Amino acid sequence: MTATLSLIPLAAPLSLLIVAAVAVREPGRTPRRVLALTRFTGVFGILVAGLTAALVAVEGPATGPKLGGEFAALGLRLDALSAAMFALVAFLGAIVMHYSRSYLEGDARHGAFLGRLATTVAAVMLLVLSGTLLQLALMWTLTSLALHRLLLFYPDRPGAVIAGRKKFLLARLGDGALAGAAMLLTRAFGTGDIAEISERATEAAASGTIPAGATLAVALLATAAALKSAQFPTHGWLAEVMETPTPVSALLHAGILNGGAFLIVRLAPVLLLSPGTMHAMILIGGFTALLMSVVMVAQSSIKTQLAYSSAAHMGFMLLLCGLGAFPVAILHLIAHSLYKAHAFLSSGSAVEVHRASHVPGYGPSPRVLAVVGAFVLAIGTVAAVGAVVDVSVLERPVSVGLAAMLAVSLVQLLGQATTTRAPLAVLARTISAAIATALAFFLLEKGAVHVLDGAVPVVTPHGAATLALMALVTAAFAFAATAQLLLPALARSTRWAPLYVHLRNGLYTNAAFDRLVGALRPVAPASLASETR
């Protein structure tokens, strides 16, 4: 791929920055030129992303020309991973900006909002296209700062200020962790180019010679990813940023939160140098996914449920990365992004349905045999489909671990039919849906491995510690699935009702974090505007 062709992706973020510049001159109500440009740049970005993917498919991976020296430079890296992420960001960005054209119609700062939104999407595009550690770290920080301005778009709302304080503090800690990791990796491998670092890290892993500082750098990378992804116990702000416009929530949950998983997968060869850090990611991600999935069920607000769901999904992605299932982590990332963007952008109508149908603490009383039956059906379904698609325990143990987690997730689907004593026709349709889900999972996993071949490492051997953690996490997920089925009945029980209340409050970890960082200190009205800067 020629140097000129490798620069084609830059056209999309540059067009968005033009929107941001025009928005400075038209920040108010009904910004005609900004509205026209956002329509154009959305379609243009999707076309550029499609062309980039086609070039990578035909010409193969490439590194664009770098601006700067060997240790500190800006540059692009085009491969299957960056092309897929670029296409995802372009598509979601176009949808969110189009939605914002009418969502804020009549707002006194409609133009300013669209400008901030365009800046944020452009920063995310440049993040996923980064070919050097310097650009990765700079875009990581710029994305966070641009998001902060969107979160505080209405600075007179105290709830937004409280959530913004916590997010700003945690983001700066994450920025520092990534900057430290970038400096250590540059020193350890003698370059700031991500492709070269990945190659040298693979050689170091094969020879067993780990460069000085690499292990600490991996720990800092995992820290930055966990902070970006709202992992326990720093997850509280995610459930509190509901004062921001809905398009921002969609962009945050469907795009920016995924930055943590992308960072780990982008530097996966480096991550493999530290098995201890990978084990820590399994524990942190698994515990976050477990806790958030249970707390989510106890929430009465649909948007709060979506927030806890996002934290749980981010935890599951980090868990997958810790297991070395990098292609599956990217597959999950893409699926979650599309689902969560739709969920938030359609949350207005969903809220009405939720209010009419959901009464906290009420639901069918599950029978023990019905729950056991759901587990048996789920395990049998996954085992049968796995045998059909030829999943090998010895060759790909991680696939078996993922299959076990898939079976646990299917318990939720099958449990709805078994615990409500559904008619046989409904049960048959539910089992058919479970079979289709399992088949789609295995086929998409194989597809992701094929598409990302060469861009993302595929890890097959696993030590005893990793397999033990995989079994532990699977058992924990089984417990969570059982708890989710039992919670409606527990809420009606005098003995267990307090537990339901504690879960609704997230076991009070967010309150403890608020006191730790002073998030609840009073804010004078005159100083609210300064929080946006």
Overview of this protein structure:
By secondary structure, the protein is mostly helical. Among the domains are: 131 residues; 148 residues. The protein contains 22 helices and 4 strands. A two-stranded antiparallel sheet has the order 1-4. The protein has a two-stranded antiparallel sheet with strand order 2-3. A hairpin with a 4-residue loop joins strand 2 and strand 3. The two termini are 41 Å apart. The C terminus is likely disordered.
Features of the shown structure:
533 residues, two-stranded antiparallel ribbon, mainly alpha, disordered C terminus
Structural class: mainly alpha
Helix content: over 70%
- Determine the mean pLDDT: 82
N-to-C SSE series?
HHHEEEEHHHHHHHHHHHHHHHHHHH
Q: What is the beta-strand fraction?
A: under 5%
Total strand segments: 4
- Shape, principal axes of CA atoms: globular
Q: Termini distance? A: 41 Å
Rg, Cα atoms, Å: 23 Å
Largest sheet: 2 strands, antiparallel
- In the sheet with the most strands, the strands line up as 1-4
Spans of at least 5 consecutive residues whose pLDDT stays below 50 are 351-364, 525-533
The number of distinct helices, counting runs of at least 4 residues, comes to 22
